Structure formats: C-alpha cells, structure tokens
Amino acid sequence: MTVLEFVDTFPDEQSCRDDFKFKREKEGVICKKCRNTAHYWLLSKEQWECKKCHFRTTLRSGSVMESSKLPVRTWYLAMMFMTFTKKGISAKELQRQLKHKRYNTIWALMHKIRNAMGNRENLYTVEGMVEFDEGYFSIATPEGMKLKRGKGSQKKQNVAVMAESTFLEDIETGEVSKRMGYVKMKVLESHKSEAINDVVEESIDEKSIVFTDKANTYLDIANYVEMHVSTKSTNETTATTLKWVHIAISNAKRTLLGIYHKIKGKYLQFYLDEFCYKLNRRYFGDRLFDRLTLAVAKSYW
Fold first, then answer.
1. pTM exceeding 0.85
2. pLDDT tens string 67-90
3. What sign does the dihedral 288-164-264-262 (CA atoms) show?
4. Checking CA distances to 2, which of 135, 142, 183, 292 falls within 20 to 30 Å?
C-alpha cells in the first residue's frame, strides 16, 4: 500500500478500528475463558461476547495491541511505514514521521509488530530441498567490556539460516532455473549441536532433504529429516549448493547494518523476523500491508 492509498483508505481513527474489527473476525476471535470461536458483536460496547460463556473480548484483547493506549491509526501508520519499502525504517525516523514525543513508545510499538511477524512465521516450516548454514551477526556490547575473539566472540551472534531451494520452469522456453523459496532465521542459544538439532526439528519439515557443509555440529541432522547431504565448504559450494542461504545472510546483514545501529543480542530475533517476513512475501506487492494487519489481529492466547 502506498502512502496516498493509505490516506484515502484510512482517513481517521474509526476507519482503522472498523478495518481491525474486520481483520480480527477474519482471523477468528477466540474466547479466552472457554476457547469458543462463536461470538456476536456488541455495538454499544465495541466488544465481542462469547455465545457460550458470555465472556467479553475487547477490540484489542488477545492481539499484540492489547494494553496499548496508542490509537489504532498510529498502529496502522507504523505498519504502513514498515511495509511500504523493501528495506526497513528506524524507530527514530518513524518517531519523526508520526510526530510522537517519546522514542521508547515507538521503539516498543515496532517490536510488537515484529513479534507479530515472528508469530506468523512460526506457523510455517521450510520443506523440500533446504539449504542450512550459520551466519554471524554483529551485535552491541557494553562499553569497557573485555571481549573474546573467535567463534565465541561477544560481538557476534550465531544465527541458524534455512532457505528452500526451488525450481521454476519457464513456460515459453522450457528452461528450468533455481530460485530461493521460503527462508527462516533463528538465533542460536549456543554453538553446540543440541541447539542446531532443536532448530532443525522445530523449523524444517521431517520429509525434507537438507544440504549443509561438513561442520561437526551438523552430524545429527539426519535424525530429524529424510536426508542430510553434507559437502566440503568451498567457494564452489557457496556459489551452488548453498547459494540461497548465503545470499539471505548477506542481504540480512546489509539491511540491518544500513538501517539499525548497535542491535542488542536479545533483540536480534525481532529484526530477523521482520527481514524474513518481508523477504518471504517479496512478491506480495501492495498486499503486504494487508497481510501484516491480519498478523497483528490474530489472537495467540
């Protein structure tokens, strides 16, 4: 959605609230008390009431907007700015665009939206032919802290990266080309094989074929997927067998370094969730904003 289209579609707070109500009903309102999904809308209260136990759910309850005092239109504006370009936008710039007084409020708002992106991504797994590798992302460290070098450096965070490798046939020429499919990135708690195994089990379909290099931490991957193919790490491997996963890592690093500065390790997953969410929907075009409003409207209780 472009800025002009947003202004025409959502000129005021009520138009945003009406759209958010529609999106929540489309995703399905769930009763927190009895888990029932059948509700009716109380217009005078602007709440849903459960047909079974009569528990009431407000417009924001259960969504990432719960407990927020910001207008719904502010949320919609933030989602618009976060989706109208392939790159991202810093909290400082968004604060300036929204003319909001407090930076911390906008920063927290953006992380809640990124959390909704991550929740949506967690509903899916990568499958088929999957490339798997690790990337080391720069993170902020406390000033004056004595740092280690090497693989366990506190200046780098280890991230597991998975990318589907798919094939696309040209209808006119019949030529088959390789392309990047779905991508997932997960911050690893440690450098041990157990952390790798947990990510593989959680994020990759068990019927997949996984391609990796010959790292020692990848020895148990075959226990969680149909087939594990490991190749020696060379320039040729990087350019062919693990092409898409390295492109994803490179693009993610370039995006984060170009927009955000001194990302703390405990928040890195939020930024990676935003990157993957937008990358996996790179062909959605103007529909990306609409899909994000659905992700924000979904109840996860």
1. yes
2. 999 999 999 999 999 998 888 899
3. negative
4. 183
